[in-house]
Design goal:
17 strands; 5 domains; alpha+beta; 27 helices; Chitinase A, domain 3; four-stranded antiparallel sheet; extended
Length: 652
């Protein structure tokens, strides 16, 4: 055996041993609560997920602090399950609702393949200039008539007919008569998906094959393809022309003269934004100095886009250009190029989910599942069932009672048989049944729905076994629900409702609830200065608070309100702004015209707060004490063991 082979074998063994060692370290036990083992890998994942800083801190203090929190968390969850909280119907219902939402998200994400995302991204980097002719097809139309019409148009185009003239004459697109079928430049996700496919697959200068979309039949001619520069931030100034005027050439002279004068002002050094505010007739953007929302191709009039994207440098502006709404001068602020694929992948997934191409991806995903779980259609049984049906199937009266118990196999999937009877029951409940013109059309759609929903339901119910992330997230949410319920029972409600316990805890810990730089003050809130002066006058005559309130309000709508409480320094600007001298009075005017009379009743520095004044703090601290004592009990009840060797390896 050669030395080289020996070296390769030794290297392979060393690398294998290293990989196994790393894997063993990750899966090593870090601690145990009762019989539940928490591995190093699980702890690291949760620790890093909850880190407050981008740089993960594996210092001894930080790791030990979080380890203690995570052990407490596991103890509480274990206790919740021991008390049967995971069987409470209300909590199970909440969990099922969350699971449904989470599974829908995961299923859709799984359906969006990387190939589809990359196809979309690659197309986003290209602009296609094309024209089209549309022969529309409505649900009630005879599709053969439309098909023959579009094929006749295509034949004439192949024989040399002018595309723009044919579009103007025959296209059902409302804009065809104005633009001759010209769509300008567009990119991915700006047209319906079948149309986009035709545009990107047709060579420059050629006609596309026939394209069927929800609008009807199309023929495209591709004129140009070029790199997509991205989007542009721009300003513009608009001078409008009159619409539908038979003397357009004559009436355009005034707007043209105006825009030329504005252009000359820019050439003379006038500020673009200021001119836009003064003269632009696009009121929406004029107030913003002519600033438009960020836009790409196929968002504006073609003439406008051409002018904007032809500007070479930031700050450049165009000569006056004309669009169907008037004359413009366009200024480039900056270009925003398309971001790298990895930077916009998540955003792209969301866009694809909302696009028709997601349906294509869904079908591909289902085909993958069919192969994975050994799908097998019994075509003989299906056709036999179809033959036994008649056109009453698509009426409201069809009940299918003679078919719903049919136990013959329709298809098998994931080692389970799905029957003709199950499909028949699905058909009975299909509300769209009566919308079809024929039995065959309906059965085609209904079978596809039944097959797809059956396969996707199986995958949704099986997600815990096929997707670790889903299983983990669902487990975290389940633990969170149980933890919240248990804490509410054992700590939060107990502390807030146990008034005797609150009093006892307060009595033992009064020194923790001291006023520090504080006063007790009475604030009279009045509607105006005269009312405040009247209050002050009544106080000078030793009227008590209730008497003052009665005399001022006189049984009418409340003109004043009165608040007496403690205020700490820095918590209220009004109180901070008056002199802290016992018995002092000051009138303070508010910005809204109302007036306060502030009376300092007592300076509270270094005095103990009453239970009422400190109740929020007392309850919070009482909760902490209850929880602390309870955790001691849980540790004794279940036991906690820590693998110090594994812990030491975690710490920097």
């Amino acid at each position: 055996m050669s030395n080289l082979k020996v070296k390769n074998i030794i290297l392979f063994l060393v690398l294998s041993l290293f990989s196994l060692t790393v894997l063993a370290q990750k899966n090593a036990e870090l601690f145990k609560v009762a019989n539940e083992v928490v591995t190093v890998d699980e702890f690291k994942r949760v620790y890093e997920k909850n880190a407050t800083n981008k740089k993960i801190d594996y210092s001894e203090n930080s790791v030990n602090e979080y380890l203690d929190l995570y052990i407490n968390f596991k103890l509480k969850v274990h206790e919740a399950k021991a008390q049967g909280l995971d069987t409470v119907q209300r909590l199970q219902k909440e969990l099922q609702t969350y699971r449904k939402q989470l599974s829908e998200s995961y299923l859709v994400d799984k359906q969006i393949s990387d190939d589809l995302l990359k196809e979309t991204y690659d197309r986003m980097n290209t602009l296609v200039k094309a024209s089209h002719i549309l022969v529309s097809v409505q649900p009630e139309d005879d599709t053969l008539v439309a098909y023959n019409k579009i094929m006749d148009i295509r034949k004439q185009l192949e024989e040399g007919a002018d595309f723009a003239e044919m579009a103007t004459k025959y296209s059902d697109d409302p804009s065809a008569k104005q633009f001759g079928g010209n769509l300008g430049y567009f990119t991915a996700m700006q047209m319906v998906y079948p149309f986009e496919n035709a545009a990107f697959s047709t060579k420059t200068g050629e006609l596309s094959n026939l394209v069927r979309t929800r609008f009807g039949y199309h023929i495209l001619k591709v004129f140009d393809k070029k790199p997509n520069p991205g989007e542009i931030n721009a300003q513009h100034i608009l001078i409008r022309t009159k619409k539908d005027n038979p003397n357009a050439e004559a009436t355009d002279l005034v707007p043209l003269s105006r825009i030329n004068k504005i252009y000359q002002q820019l050439e003379d050094g006038k500020d673009f934004a200021e001119l836009a505010k003064q003269v632009s007739e696009d009121k929406g953007s004029a107030a913003k100095g002519g600033q438009l929302p960020l836009f790409g191709h196929s968002k504006m009039f073609p003439e406008f886009e051409t002018a904007a994207f032809n500007l070479k440098n930031d700050g450049d502006y165009s000569k006056p250009i004309k669009t169907p709404v008037g004359y413009h001068i366009v200024k480039r602020l900056n270009m925003v190029p398309i971001k790298p694929f990895d930077d916009i992948k998540k955003e792209l997934v969301q866009k694809v989910k909302r696009d028709a191409r997601a349906e294509v991806s869904k079908v591909q995903f289902i085909d993958k599942l069919k192969k994975q779980y050994d799908f097998n259609l019994n075509e003989k049984n299906r056709l036999k069932f179809y033959d036994e049906l008649d056109e009453t199937l698509i009426t409201q009266n069809w009940e299918g009672k003679e078919f719903t118990s049919n136990n013959n196999t329709l298809f098998t999937f994931a080692n389970k048989k799905y029957t003709i009877g199950e499909f028949a029951r699905f058909i009975v409940n299909a509300r769209y049944r009566t919308k079809f013109k024929s039995k065959d059309e309906f059965l085609k759609a209904a079978y596809m729905d039944f097959e797809h929903s059956t396969i996707l339901t199986y995958e949704e119910q099986n997600l815990e076994n096929t997707n670790e992330d889903f299983k983990r997230l669902l487990g975290e949410y389940t633990d969170g629900i149980l933890l919240f319920e248990l804490m509410e029972q054992k700590v939060w409600n107990k502390a807030s409702k146990d008034t005797a316990g609150q009093k006892s805890f307060y009595a033992k810990n009064k020194e923790n609830y001291m006023w520090n730089d504080a006063v007790r003050a009475t604030v009279y809130h009045s509607k105006d200065l005269n009312t405040a002066l009247k209050i002050k006058e009544l106080r000078g005559k030793n009227h008590p608070i209730d008497s003052i309130k009665t005399k001022i309000n006189q049984g009418k709508v409340s003109l004043i309100s009165i608040t007496t409480k403690g205020y700490e320094k820095g918590k209220d600007p009004t109180i901070d702004g008056v002199k802290w001298v016992e018995g002092s009075e000051e009138i303070v005017k508010n910005d809204d015209g109302t007036v306060k009379l502030v009376v300092i009743e007592e300076v509270l520095n270094k005095k103990v707060k009453t239970l009422a004044e400190s109740k929020g703090y007392v309850i919070a601290d009482y909760q902490d004490e209850i929880e602390k004592n309870w955790l001691v009990e849980l540790r004794e009840k279940y036991g906690v063991t820590i693998n110090n060797k594994a812990l030491k390896k975690l710490i920097d």
